[in-house]
Amino acid sequence: MVPAQAALVRFVATYRQDTASWTDERVRLTSELIQGALAVKMLSWEKLFCQKLAGMRAGEAVHVAAMNRIRVLNTAMLFIVAPLVSFTAFGTYRLFHTTLSVPTVFYCLSLFQLPRTSMVVGFTLAVQTLTEVLVSIDRIDEFLSTKEPPLPLLLDAADEEKATVVMNGADFDWNQPMGGLSTTASDIRQEVQSSGKEVELGGPVKEGVVSSAGGLTLSGIRFQLKKGELLGICGEVGSGKSSVLAALLGEMLPLHKEEGTEEMMTDTGPLVRGTVGYCQQVPWIVAGTVRENIVFDSSWDEEWYKKVLQACALDADIAMLPAGDATELGERGINLSGGQKARIALARACYCRPAVQLMDDPLSAVDPRVGRTLFQEAIMTIMAGSTRVLVTHQRQYLPKCDRVMVMRGGRCAALGTWEEVSLLDLPELKAGATAAGAAAEVSVDEAADQINRQQAAAAPLLEYTLAVVPPLKAGYSGRAELHSSADDGHAVEDGDTMSAEQSKSEGSLKAAIGLSGQRTFRFLTGRRQKPEVSSARVEQHLEFAETVDEVEAEAEKGCDSNSGSGSLLSDVAHAQSGRLVKAEHRQEGDVSWAVYWLYIRKLGMPSTIAVTILLIGGQAVSVASDWWLSLWSRASNQADLRWVWTYGLLVGLVICVAMPRSYFFFTSTLRASTSIHDICAMRVMRAPLSFFHTNPVGRMLNRFSRDLGVVDDLLPFTSFDALQCAMVVLGAFLLVCIAVPVILPVFLPLILLFYYVRGRYIVASRECKRWEAVTRSPLYAFFTQSIKGLPTIRAYGAGKRFDMDFLGLLSVNNAWCFAIISTARWVGFRLDLICALTLSATALLAVAAEGMVQPQLLGLALTYTMSIMGVMQWFVRQTAEVENNMTSMERLLEYTVLPQEPPIVGEPGALDPPEGWPASGDLKFDMVTATYRPGLPPVLREVTFHLPAGTSCGLVGRTGSGKSSLMLALFRLISVDSGRIILDGVDVATIGLDGLRRQLAIIPQDPVLFSGTIRGNLDPWDTHPDAALWEALEAVQLKVAVQELGGLHARMAEAGDNLSVGQRQLFCLARALLQDARILALDEATASVDRGTDALIQSAVRRFARSRFSCDLNQSDGTTKDTIVSTRDKAAEMPGGRVLLVIAHRIDTIIDMDRILVLGAGQLLEEGSPQVLAAKQGGIFSSMVTASNLIVPTVAV
Question: Residue ranges of region Disordered (predicted)?
């Protein structure tokens, strides 16, 4: 038996490793889908990605099934060993001895029970657990063995004349192995902040070998910057601008050829002296308050804080928030616009006052007016004493830089002063590089400031903002849990801040930051206003158990405070006391029998009945075999072969029953968990957008990882153990009662004691299990959040602080884990004590009953009594564990009843779209009024307009005017309370949701891509030929970049991380062009690309919008590129086609549109062609055009 167990161990290790790999991939894809839920919904990809998830789950289930087969063998051995050993021993004994005595038989039966418990149950569990531990250790060891960058060198402090930032011409490649999560030089910057020493990043790396494939990311870049200098870096999309900053930060290491090769590189890595501030191109926002994001890891300085807010144009934004800078920001800043996130990240860099500022295109996400304020007040004034490196596409700022570097293909194409590089006539500097060109880049909000103040609708603006962003009350942040805006599914549109007059009307800056000196309670983290790294921080987390009930009660009270009134005052009150993220639901009391019943239904009634019959039958055969042995021992004719053959037959039946019942059970449980996973995945993806805004990513991943793992592994194991033990206890109890009724009085107190102890134990252990699950979610959320912001954390030297925060959350979770183990030890000791006392009483009663009961029956009863003690103790513990593990099933089932979006095509309540619908993009809004949720003011009020097919339309209006709300209403992401939206003659509310969204395409400001292949991201349904995909890529200037990556089947990293942000935006644009949609919407979709590429893209989009047909992109009959292009050009001359909707921050980007819609406070204020609106005396758009000094084209192009 031991060799058999050893052989199984080898398989356990292999299967566990394979299962873990599949689980990692499934959870990774789940995380991507949750974070990209908005894009998935707008693209109507829910079904597609759920199928991918189901496929990954099926692959994972194959390896789980292999593990279950080993478990089947182990559980079968538990019941096979004793009968098999008994048959072999007694058969052999009978061959060499004439008779079997009763004492010998029952002494041996008792002895044979020992290996069943120790060698089968104990040894198997020990080996399996040890194997899983070793697999986990190997995975951890592989991670910890990943190459890390070299430790930084701490040099003497630099003098004023010494260069602060130096690039020495080394080559860099993102494929250089370094370990994405490893510690870099920036981790120790906190140690040198007060020392004034310099840090050299990325020293020589001898292990790195220059790759001959794919080229280098950066090559031969050399420059030096002295203290206070400003270097502007520009270039086309994908030219290596962001990579320069990554090299300076030590996130990308220099390459070195192998020693001994020719022309061995001797250049060292870049040199950065002093502390560093960093603004990522995709701003990283921590789940916490506005102030926590700005102050970050620095000490509190109120006066400096005020100056930073003013310089970053944040003072007015904060002033109009009810909780001021104590307003909670959701995970990833999901309740902020892109511009607001960029300004907060820039304010963080300003506030920490570093020696070196590295800024990756922080001005693209804001409109030109705010951009000019940020550049002048923040970059040129607040940061004046720092050495600054600014990556930007806003080339109107380059003349103000001390030096300008033009990037091209990973190399420096030009470096010098603006006067020097402008003489080179570089294509990267031709468009929009002069101050005159900048004058045309007037924002919608800036032009609107010159309009009559009554048209600005300041009060509705405030009302709208409060309705969209209801912040948490001050003092309740919950860093790792806070995620998003209230159930509205909308981020505030960015534009300009409020004017000074509006700011004063809402409150002074002092009021906006009025909680500066207060220390607030932080859910699960114990954060302080001034971050400190000490052991006291961990101790604060351990106070969670004492305060959590109070916090939950307060949270529930806050959640119930909404009166449902639509008035402004009630909305403000709710905004002040409401919660940004719902507290995770936690059941209390016994697990409902409905949960057990649903699990049984998922197992399948045929399987359940079959397993039940086999369990009862197996125990009956096992008791019969022992009973037959007792008769054999008392028989006078023991030599009769019928005794041997009958006993052998019964043992054979035990073996035959043990295997099938285990196999059926574990197969059914795996099928049930897979079914539950698939249902949960589909229900989550079909949940309203507000669900993703009120539930952190970590919370959802907790259900799809840990909880599903429990339902896969622990719940089946404990359930089968409990069922088997129940049969053993029941069979033994009946036998003992029939054979020795005098022992019955012993069992009644035993049962009552076991029931009492179990009741005391399960109450505590079940709640501990639930709290352990709830406190695990913040761990997942915090870890996910930190991974996204690693470059920022490293740059600011905040690694220690985040380590302590993580340890605090881990301490809370471990406290509940320890409580679970402690309760298990508590019940184990008491059950052992009860069993010992019961065995003693049974033995005494047996001695007293001598002569009143047949010896063979007394021996059989004593044997079963001794075995029943251990089994009954295990039964009590396993039934309790079943209920504990059923809490994971309980949590998963919560996701199977989530509220859902309107039905899709084929579901009840949704009509199939008419055949051939829509033939064009003809769009009508008929008196549309929409709200984000019941009880809030409408964000669209009786909006009516008509856009014929082939029309391009620009949407303009101040922040909060309803531009994005109109898009959300079109995609049915918010509810339309009254009115109709009609696409090509059909009310979209009557069409299945997927049928509508497939006819709409949108390119958001924040691009979303998924891991897989380039083709899979462009055409996941595989409906287009390669020629069409290459044409779309060429139209957005990505063809060469994709070819360099390896073609359409090249790998796409998670979130498109192997592309620059600008390339990701262009990629999403190519995907939209391929989509056979009748309406194409752009929300500043080219904000992160250079102006030359932007002009080409705008031209391609407008031509595409006028195309009547799909331009034969679906043809797969060898259609050439020239044929496709000529077909599109011909179609562009025809009437009809698509509708193009563009949300603009700059008037110059929409001045050539066919139609303009001017929105204000959710109402349509003006509508018409640019020519008509520009000629309208006193009109809003006319004032905008006048303020911007633009010339309206005579005919729209």
Answer: 480-509
